[in-house]
Amino acid sequence: MTQFEFVQVTVAIILGLGLTDVLRSLGEQFRHRHEIEVSSLQVGASCLLLVIIVIYLWNFWLASDVSWTLPLFLMQVASAIALALSAQFIKVDLSSGKTPEAQYFDNCTATFVSWAMAPLFALSFLIAVGNASAGDAGRLVAATLLVSLAFVKRPGYHAIVLTLLLLLSVFAGPAVSLFELR
Question: At 180, is the secondary structure helix, strand, or coil?
Fold first, then answer.
């Protein structure tokens, strides 16, 4: 097993667990839609997280030619852990008695602060391997928007920022994605 395959398997396992949590939460929420009100913010944030994890995994796979060191490995694992933790924070607990939207706003500070770590770690990774460019300011903008979601608790603001981030993640392509590694 090469260095990259070791790192790739570790990151894929961590992010796979995060994907599983998000998909399980969405499934439970839709299955119990007659008992609870489905929150469009929670569903939108979950879908955005799914897209970002898939883009992250794709771009990470493209980074196979990097000479791995322990600090680079730790940055990648920390980024994957931040995304997986945000999946834990964003899931809906049906037994809590609170609506999904109330749970979303109760957990949004932890969700989006942990989520904002991923673009910062990706930028640190690019700087460390000498591959950073002027276009990497987008990562700082994305991290700033995510952190602002943690502290501004207005549904309209969350809807606008989540929609913009989803559109950016889906339509900007891997060349300018938030978590590009090459």
Answer: coil
